[in-house]
Amino acid sequence: MKLxxxxxxxxxxxxxxxxxPSVIEHSSSEANVYIAxxxxxxxxxxxxxxxxxxxKIIQNKENGGYAKGYNEALKDIDADVFCLLNSDVEVSKNxxxxxxxxxxxxxxxxxxxxxxxxxxxxxxxxxxxxxxxFIDKFGYPYCRGRIFNTIEKDNNQYNDTSExxxxxxxxxxxxxxxxxxxxxxxxxxxxHMEEIDLCWRAKNLGYHIKYVSASTIYHVGGATLSNTNxxxxxxxxxNSLFALTKNAKGNIFFLIVTRLxxxxxxxxxxxxxxxxxxxxxxxxxxxxxxxxxxxxxKQRKTLNQSIKYYQKTSIVFEYFVNNKNNYxxx
Length: 330
Description:
nine-stranded mixed beta sheet; single chain; 11 helices
């Protein structure tokens, strides 16, 4: 099985200097490592060429974000499985072996995520994907190990291999044939939640997505765009609506109206917390969503919406009303 690890980079020389050595040390015997550079303006490319001459570099012509950056880069890579790996990730010894074994044993498994722990607090899960992702009826994402901003400690409670709904883009393994079947990421997302959309489309075609805890990585998170940045709030709220409209089975009108109400409550909450820029970001997210609605509905007509996509009707209600702040209590 030919495996390609592809690290998307944009002005990330310091991150590459810090984390690339662990990737090379623990991966080079089982995979080819690529840097896909999104038109960096720092010295990332020259640094890689001089310090890690064995690393293959793909230079994209522009910074098209996560979605377009990977779509462009993966066109030029010959592999059976792509590993899309953030530049702020430390990998561990033998991290690839359980992933490869799972792909070989399960022909209908299309996408796999390892256990994501926090690089700064290594006994805690990491926000971006923890022990695998799910969404509720209204499109809000959550994880085993993380619900909204509540992060669980890793007490081996998710030491298993299990079916999940979405795998984190911080480290996502996908069969190349499936990536091509799905036409890659939807570039309208630019960044954030495009992996949820990709996984959702794969699930609607009948493929399995797995979490494999025997493979462990450590993710810094927010190294490119912090959780406190209103741009991240904008992308998360908008792109959640994008994915819901394209892929959800059921009455979209009812879902979107409900989301409008719930997102308005979130905006009011930010106002009370004096986070005015985040309230504005939510408003902008909805206007951007409505501007893309024609495109999204056209996409919806071409896609399958075949599965029940949620475990819980409303994670918002469970978390904020019933005070259930960890996955096992849901």
